[in-house]
């Protein structure tokens, strides 16, 4: 399983990169939401490092390995969460994710069917299924500051510490993250997981 790829970009298409890794050229497909920001991560010499999702596209007569690239683990996690919706596979998700992930996450959280219908390949019924499956599970993705740098998830720790690290890696300053966590805990004493805590942070920022 290929989890990360580092090499030199030799070709850039509308939705893919060709990356030279020691003389082997890999085609890596990139969701439009990520491709819009890819230039900031390509060095002057063309070098790039991407987190990858590796799967096999199965057809009646063949099975083709496919790499999907992301700038950070948070983007990959959203992609993996998105494809848990029935009827949305990796290929459909690649096509659909053409707007900033934070906006898509907010639309899911707010049951914004009209926004989700603007995503390629997503009709009204599929939008309803996305909301039914993912609502209240994507709060931390709504906190992404799209256009920012790398945001890898930390190791498991105390939930408040873990939530603070996630917020900092989403480009929030530590004092800001601490204040958001404090307010979230004050608002809901029943929080038991990091995911619930980040969802509460998202809700309080949304209600401003």
What is the CATH C-level name of the largest domain? Mainly Alpha
Number of helices: 10
Write the element-wise H/E pattern from the N-terminal end onward: EEEHEEHHHHHHHHH
Radius of gyration: 18 Å
Please state the average pLDDT score: 87
Give a quick account of the main beta sheet: strands, pairing sense, barrel closure: 5 strands, mixed, barrel
Report how far the terminal alpha carbons are from each other: 43 Å
Class per helix and strand makeup: alpha+beta
CATH architecture of the largest domain: Orthogonal Bundle
DSSP E strands, number:
5
Gross morphology: globular
Oligomer: single chain
- State the domain count: 3
| Percent range of helical residues | 40-55%
Q: Largest sheet, order of strands side by side?
A: 1-2-3-5-4
Please summarize what this structure is.
It contains ten helices and five strands. It is of the alpha+beta class and 208 residues long. It has a five-stranded mixed β-barrel.
Descriptive overview:
The chain is of the alpha+beta class. It folds into 3 domains: 4-70, Nucleic acid-binding proteins (OB fold (Dihydrolipoamide Acetyltransferase, E2P)), CATH 2.40.50.140; 73-141, Orthogonal Bundle (DNA polymerase, domain 1); 154-206, no CATH class. The chain has helices spanning 32-35, 73-82, 90-96, 101-109, 113-116, 124-134, 139-142, 159-169, 174-187, 194-206; strands spanning 4-12, 16-21, 24-29, 47-59, 62-70. The protein has a 5-stranded mixed beta barrel with strand order 1-2-3-5-4. Strand 4 and strand 5 form a beta hairpin. Helix 8 (159-169) crosses helix 9 and helix 8 crosses helix 10. The radius of gyration is 18 Å and the shape is globular. The N and C termini lie far apart (43 Å). The model is unreliable at 147-157 (pLDDT under 50).
